[in-house]
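quick one before i forget lol
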Amino acid sequence: MTTTRFKQGDAVRISARYAPGHVRTPFYVRGKQGLIERVLPRFINPELEAYGVNEGTETQLYRVRLSQNSLWPDYEGRSSDVVELEIFEHWLEPIQLVANEKE
């Protein structure tokens, strides 16, 4: 059994790195925080695979839920609207939220 760095419900920040080249993390979510919606399987790292240097290295994938209001401050939809994205572990940083931010 493989252990994972994060579990469902954990608060995370998506790294604000601006790496050039082939990355699978959309620009508009970098530096934003969300919650782990679910833990997905491990996959070959596509960022390394694109350059032929992966050699089969796997990395953990997570589905991360972000509030649309946190992504687009002028969003006029419901405050409960979310975006869910699949983000690889090496793009995620743990954060601590106070109790009322988790709701």
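fyi The mean pLDDT is 87.
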